[in-house]
């Protein structure tokens, strides 16, 4: 079963705009991770946020986590055409249990 | 550092035929995963190995899917006989140590089309 659900399913923006994707999950987690998948490629890890963290930054990426609402958001600032990809959140319920992925958000950045 | 290697990249087979996918994880990674990703969906875990032992295979359709990691390094995933609904990308990934608190590194995937 899939734990995380991303919203929206698809997002289309102009280059230079910010893109925000949300992820909701059902059970308590140890950490939440975001991955990117370019068309026809494997997934690439972007960022990990632990359950005791509220916000994390990495370059143009900003991730927030609200464990009370069981939700996370990924913000990509000043988007570029190269950011066009699918973005997945993945949760680790506890300890060493395997990551469970959501269905993803397909982001299109138009030049 | 070499990434996760998978082969073949693409395979087309007829239903009821068999197919095998091979994966070589990043050197030194004890944990290896096989995920199935159907078009438009997120990856679904099929099986997780820790060295040469199975940690989780609860979502592996064992009547037709099998996987092994005999020497604790590379791994093979087999489907026999294949069904139309097995058309998907089969992603191999590895991590060290076990992945929930650490980054998982994915290969490029093996694309299977069953006709």
Set out the fold topology.
The complex is a heterodimer of chains A (111) and B (115).
Chain A: E1 5-7, E2 10-14, E3 19-24, E4 31-37, E5 43-50, E6 55-58, E7 61-66, E8 71-76, E9 85-92, E10 100-101, E11 105-110
Parallel strand pairs in A: 2-11
Antiparallel strand pairs in A: 1-3, 3-8, 4-5, 4-9, 6-7, 7-8, 9-10, 9-11
Chain B: E1 5-7, E2 10-13, E3 19-24, E4 31-37, E5 44-50, E6 53-56, E7 65-68, E8 75-79, E9 88-95, E10 105-106, E11 110-114
Parallel strand pairs in B: 2-11
Antiparallel strand pairs in B: 1-3, 3-8, 4-5, 4-9, 5-6, 7-8, 9-10, 9-11
Describe the structure.
The complex is a heterodimer of chains A (111) and B (115). Chain A is mainly β and 111 residues long. Chain A is built from no helices and eleven strands. Chain A has strands spanning 5-7, 10-14, 19-24, 31-37, 43-50, 55-58, 61-66, 71-76, 85-92, 100-101, 105-110. In chain A, the strands form two sheets. In chain A, strands 2, 4, 5, 9, 10 and 11 form a six-stranded mixed beta sheet that branches. Chain A is globular and about 40 Å long. The relative contact order of chain A is 0.35. The model of chain A has no long low-confidence stretch (mean pLDDT 92). Chain B has 115 residues and is an all-beta fold. Chain B is 0% helix and 48% strand. Chain B has no helices and eleven strands. In chain B, strands 2, 4, 5, 6, 9, 10 and 11 form a seven-stranded mixed beta sheet that branches. Chain B is globular. The mean pLDDT of chain B is 93.
Number of strands of chain A: 11
Structural classification of chain B: mainly beta
Shape designation of chain B: globular
| Shape category of chain A | globular
